[in-house]
Design a protein that fits this description.
Layout (H helix, E strand, L loop, with lengths): L7 H12 L18 E5 L3 E7 L8 E6 L2 E8 L18 E8 L10 E5 L2 E7 L14
Antiparallel strand pairs: 1-2, 2-7, 3-4, 4-5, 6-7
Length: 140
């Protein structure tokens, strides 16, 4: 599995934005306020990604695989079903998210499949068949 480096500057930008929401990010992508929980694991024949996306519909999710990188994007919108908005507590996170995952090996993007059921997205990406090295005996 590939090691993903931690970016402390992204965390610092999120803290700065918390204290100064009007802060400009000078052309950089605005940090997301939330990120869905994701599990990625590898079997003998495939890479499997499972993401928790509660309260979202299939139309809110965009999934792409290109150059051995899986990109998961979407928006979880705040629903205002309360007639008189007098909230005591809002703990659930909303907004845009953008996650990217580098595959640890070459994958067959044409055979990628995804299933979304009960707020759980499961993406299965088959590995490419490895080229077998065969020694050929040269005869005279």
């Amino acid at each position: 599995m590939k090691i993903i480096k931690w970016d402390p500057f992204k965390d610092m930008m999120m803290v700065e934005e918390f204290f100064d929401p009007a802060k400009q990010h000078r052309g950089m992508e605005k940090p997301s306020t939330w990120s869905p929980a994701v599990d990625v694991y590898e079997t003998e024949r495939e890479i499997v990604l499972t993401a928790e996306l509660p309260g979202m519909s299939q139309e809110d999710i965009m999934l792409t695989v290109q150059d051995n990188v899986l990109a998961l994007k979407g928006d979880r919108l705040f629903e205002r079903d309360v007639k008189h908005e007098n909230f005591y507590r809002i703990e659930r996170n909303y907004g845009h998210f953008n996650r990217k995952f580098s595959m640890p090996c070459d994958v067959d993007t044409d055979k990628t499949s995804a299933n979304f059921n009960d707020g759980l997205l499961k993406v299965v990406i088959p590995k490419k068949n490895k080229v077998r090295k065969v020694h050929v005996k040269v005869e005279k």
